[in-house]
Design goal:
Blueprint (H helix, E strand, L loop, with lengths): L11 H15 L3 E2 L5 E3 H4 L11 H4 L3 E4 L5 E4 L5 H9 L4 E10 L11 E11 L4 H15 L7 E6 L4 E10 L16 E10 L1 H7 L7 E7 L1 H9 L12 H4 L3
Parallel strand pairs: 1-5
Antiparallel strand pairs: 2-4, 3-4, 5-6, 6-10, 7-8, 8-9, 9-10
Helix pairs in contact: 4-6
This protein binds zinc ion.
């Protein structure tokens, strides 16, 4: 049946998540989900972020008091599903976790109190940062529909990985020559990743002397904003149909 004007269409974030599922399924990934209201343990402790860890302050979290007096949060990242999934599944596995996350921060063109993330987690014997590079290169080339996309790793810090890396792509606007969008560097930061920290494995009872893991977290909004030149993240939730009809 032909769609009529009044029928509308998917939000570009939904379309992106479906497309991303297809790309990762080809590489053997399953899709897992978790709750948006999450325990403190899954959101922080299981990820090597104990209560006195300074990185808790980097994420302005919405805390919720629940009737059973457990400490509960609106999850601040989809990494919260790592502990949940690894506590209930035996490796090896490859999984992606798409979903909505929440941060208590002022809203502007690049910040929203709710947005999406997609966590990737692979636990296998002998998996390395080289595997991570291969997987992400394949994904990013397809997501940006650019076979000549380059990626580079820089050292980065996230408490639940060691070593951690920030990953840049060659600027898609100027073909890495340097422009306003990439601040004349030719590179754009696109996601964070690393090798799963042994403390995360011990929190969920996986033997880190046998199993190795890679984890990455990407933002559908960020990739779509770069891919289509969208300048304001708030447009994704706008009721203005002129925005959504472009996709
Ligand atoms: Zn550029």
């Amino acid at each position: 049946m032909e769609l009529e004007e009044k029928d509308g269409s998917f939000n570009p974030i939904t379309t992106f998540i479906y497309k991303t599922h297809a790309i990762f399924r080809e590489m053997g990934f399953l899709v897992a989900e978790g709750p948006q209201m999450e325990t403190e343990w899954n959101n922080f402790d299981a990820l090597n972020v104990p209560s006195d860890h300074p990185s808790r302050d980097q994420q302005d979290t919405f805390w919720i008091k629940d009737p059973f007096d457990d400490r509960v949060v609106l999850r601040s990242h989809t990494s919260s599903v790592q502990g949940r999934f690894m506590s209930n599944n035996k490796p090896p596995f490859r999984v992606i976790v798409p979903g909505r996350v929440y941060r208590q921060e002022a809203t502007d063109a690049t910040h929203e109190t709710q947005f999406h993330q997609m966590e990737g987690l692979v636990v296998e014997e002998g998996i390395t940062l080289a595997s991570l590079k291969g997987i992400l290169e394949d994904f990013l080339e397809k997501a940006f529909e650019d076979k000549n996309l380059l990626i580079r790793f820089r050292p980065g810090y996230f408490p639940f990985v060691e070593p951690g890396v920030e990953i840049d792509i060659s600027c898609t606007f100027c073909k890495a020559k340097g422009c306003r969008i990439c601040k004349e560097t030719g590179w754009i930061e696109i996601l964070g990743a690393g090798m799963v920290h042994p403390n995360v494995f011990s929190a969920v009872g996986i033997d880190s002397s046998k199993w190795k893991g890679i984890a990455f977290g990407l933002s559908p909004e960020r990739i779509l904003m770069l891919r289509y030149g969208i300048e304001d993240i708030r447009l994704f939730h706008s009721a203005d149909l002129r925005f959504i009809k472009q996709f």
